[in-house]
Amino acid sequence: MMRKIIFLTFWISVTAANICAQTGEPKREFRGAWVHTVGNQQYREMTADQMKRHFTDLLDEFEKAKINAVIFQVRPQADAFYVSSIEPWSRFITGTQGAAPHPAWDPLQFMTDECHKRGMELHAWFNPYRVTSNNTETLCGEHLYYKKPYLFVKYGKQIYFDPGEPEAREHTLKVIADVVERYDIDAVHFDDYFYPYKIKEKDITVDFPDGRSFAKYGKKDGFAEKNDWRRNNVNILIEALSKTIKEIKPWVKFGISPFGVWRNVSSDPSGSNTTAGCENYDDLYADIKLWVEKGWIDYNVPQLYFDIGHPAADYETLIDWWSKNNYGENLYIGQDISKTVKVKSRKNENEFLNQLPQKMQMVRSNKNIHGNVWWSGYALQRNPNGFTDSLKNYQTKIALMPKYKRIDTIAPEAVQNARAEQTAEGLFLKWDAPATDDQMQKTVYYCVYLQPEPNAKYASPEQFEYPVAITQKTEFKITDNHIYYAVTALDKLQNESKPVLIRIE
Q1: Is the overall model pTM greater than 0.85, yes or no?
Q2: How many Å apart are CA 119 and CA 113, to the nearest integer?
């Protein structure tokens, strides 16, 4: 028997806060996973089809765990996991830097498409300065290192761009601008590697070998102290990259995941009450607090890879410090799976603790924190100590992205021509995309909701709880006997349109 379709207009006063209070899951929450490529030796043994299957299997597992953002490393060592005319193919694809995959395919394009099919964001993860990871790696003959050796330095067993060379910064900007221009990525992402972690030899710290560039530019740039000059070099890159991204595509976000300690309180009264052996500001010359305050980045993911009760860097102390120093920006917490689900007790060395419940509670109870990113994403597939099973209990519903209030909060128009169609494959809800020439308001996804109260009239998307689907398609197959549905449109920043309600009888 054909069911009758009724389209409704709507008003109601139920709040999203009430809904969230009932379930404990926020409707909007960043749920990221890092997928690193540096050091991965498994890919070179895979065919293109095997590698694609490897990634789709990984994304399928992410989807089951309700992950909504994949941070995919596309420039591990001044090379490319994508088609590039600027830098060589990464050694971690075929085993040889500069060797293109055969048959030809583009891992970044593939991952972007596959993420978007699943309603996930793709954040392209770049390393700005690293060129090699050890002294056994061979650079391909076309590498910039051989063309412009003055842009590079050797530190320990590795090669790096010299951050003090303006031309090195310009090269990095060019590389990232090229990707933003050509690929439909949702964000550009840096992790904690700026100036490299310091090397010690016989308990003596080896200084980064940038004396030549400091002599050339330090005084000219107005700096007598090398450390201040180094921080300024990184500041220049971050500010310039922020502007570059927004000039190309204003909706593409810029996020950074720094080491978990900005400065210890002993170094700065405004620092955290920690005694960590490394500090962003003093050791990596990364003044993340300044970047957040200036609005140069759109989200911050401090790597709080510590356990609750850590004597030098207590997780609870740090999560509180970062939440009070986020300047209204989006703040997500970088979580280490191994240091969360199996933590050695400090009272009994033979006892191990699962701190996931406490850490999730700390994140979700703090209004200044908007989600998590898990290291490493591959572990979600392995389910170490039952972690993935546990995470699924905290992420039972699909979550939309947090809003980016400093970029855009204007919602797209509602979907058009909502209807139901009976086909040979079953009954489908169908609709048309709202028309617009504004790229910021262009619809990229649709949310489908089950309306919980048949007699209520809903005016705002915030008055609906969790969507049952986020899809690129303009249709949704009905697989149950539910009567009341709603469809909303999402733009590139997941601002949500007014819902169109549908009653099926």
Answers
A1: yes
A2: 10
